[in-house]
Description:
Blueprint: E1 2-6, H1 10-21, E2 25-29, H2 33-40, H3 51-58, E3 63-66, H4 69-74, E4 78-81, H5 96-110, E5 117-120, H6 128-141, E6 149-152, H7 162-167, E7 172-176, H8 179-187, E8 196-199, H9 201-232, H10 236-243, H11 265-278, H12 284-308, E9 315-319, H13 335-344, E10 348-352, H14 357-361, E11 367-368, H15 372-376, E12 381-384, E13 405-408, E14 420-423
Helix pairs in contact: 1-3, 5-6, 9-11, 9-12, 11-12, 12-13
Amino acid sequence: MKISVIGTGYVGTVSAACFADLGHEVICVDIDKSKIDLINTGIPPIYEEGLAELLKKYAGKRLSATLDYDFAVKNTEISFICVGTPSDPGGNIDLGIVKAASANLGDSLGKKKDYHVVVVKSTVVPETTEKVVLPIIEGHSGKHIGKFGIAMNPEFLREGKAVHDFLHPDKIVVGSIDKRSGDMVASLYSGLECEVTRTNLRTAEMIKYVNNAFLATKISFSNEIGNICKKLGIDTYEVMKAVGRDFRIGPHFLNSGAGFGGSCFPKDVRALIGKARETGYEPQLLNSVLEVNEEQPYRMVSLLKDKLGSIKGKKIAVLGLAFKNDTDDIRESRSIPVIKELLDNEANVSAYDPMANGNMKKLFNIKYHDSAIDALRGADACLIMTEWDEFKSLDKEFDIMGRKLVIDGRHMLAPGKDVEYIGLCW
Length: 426
Ligand code: UGA
């Protein structure tokens, strides 16, 4: 089939490349010419494992990119909206970019005679596709629904593993306004071995939020249990390993520590809370999920102060700045509140991350290093903030510290006995 993909962020570019891999012809659209040029030369505008190989294989063949909405809509049968949905200052979803993309699509659809389906892949709160996107497209195209189709097809792609997740899904959800639109979208995935869940638009939107909110809840629950275990001298990892063997619970996302970050969990839980409040319902459990998550990083600094007393003027090494391993993304990283708190206490912060130093430099004027050992030199303590593989084997490297005190926020290490090793929740 012929597909256009609006937005070349990580969801858009990965979806475009993977649709090409499934045999479809794909045109990417973005307002940023530099991204268009990169894609047309087969270079991904963002880093994702496996993406460079796919773009190299299909760019200039089944995959191209353009600034021109009219061209993309005219030459394809389906358009996916894959633009960002950030939080507004109040924590609610900001639909500005979705609205702009819908208006542009509507304008182009007005110039096209043939049937065309618009699919929202961006994460949007329930009712958005029906009550925001659809009226904008109708208004701008001058066409009523039926002359074109509309669907909602959420993504479940982990950053860093997005290509793998797209091509090996455990679920595909297609919400649609009518059977014709839904059939067209579902058929795009016929090359994948995965049952397609068919539903209506608002249910598809809700499934995406519930998926992320449930995973975030699992993490905050594990953190709360970890905080209690810590007080009782119990290893919460031993507890959760046993608990996770129950098939109804499962072993994943039970790792307690410094909490969740990234561009999805915090934003999506906030947006779901905002939507619930709009209906007059106060979601107490979701509020608590965020509260527990906000407090975890401060527990790192409290443990540090318990050991060192005042941290004023003390050198504290922060290892790990990205919100998780294998990415340079620092959005809502738990290391941000930690560094801020350290600086507020006038500590001297030396940091290292294998990929994210550059991004963190834009936020904090602290000392950045090119290796863990450089950051550790002479430090009074070390905080482990991100689950990078290379931190797992750290041991003799701590010899270079002034005081070998290590507080681990990710259950990463197993250092020798001469290191004063403290787990955040264990
Ligand atoms: C998340 C979801 O996992 C994807 O399914 C979803 O499609 C995506 O959001 C999205 O909405 O686009 P992602 O934000 O890339 O993906 O990150 P995860 O790998 O899920 O990790 C999120 C955070 O949770 C990280 O900060 C990680 O350190 C933390 N985490 C994860 C824990 O603290 N404990 C755990 O047990 C697992």
